[in-house]
Design brief:
Elements: E1 4-14, E2 22-28, E3 31-38, E4 48-56, E5 65-71, E6 74-80, E7 82-88, H1 90-98, H2 104-116, H3 122-134
Antiparallel strand pairs: 1-2, 1-4, 2-3, 3-7, 4-5, 5-6
Length: about 140
Amino acid sequence: MNEVISTGSFRVVERHGPAGRLLLRGRIDDRVEYLVIAGYAGPELPQALTNATVRVDDNAVRAETAWRITSNEGIFNLRARALDRVEECPALYQPMHSKFALAMTDRLAVRVLLGLLRLPGGARLLRLWHSRRRG
């Protein structure tokens, strides 16, 4: 049975990079997914692949691993040394970082204090503000 590596719509970002690298970028809801294919050997892919499914091809007879990309644009069989899937999910960390975000008044105070930092005693003002904020 073929193992599904990834599904979605992808766009070719980089072709023939270092070591024959092919970089595909897909966006699904609030996350971005990259497929990095090293040592790509196969047909020329279109600029965009819609409703694509990337699977490991079990019928491979060579030492390199074979993959099959099935999309609305067609079926593409390829060989490569490696296929890496990188997923970015910034919404995952947003709730964790929000409690450390500065309020609008604090951001304004920091700008003013950083502007005053050049003056004599500016570093002292910044330290006093920071100690008042923490304690």
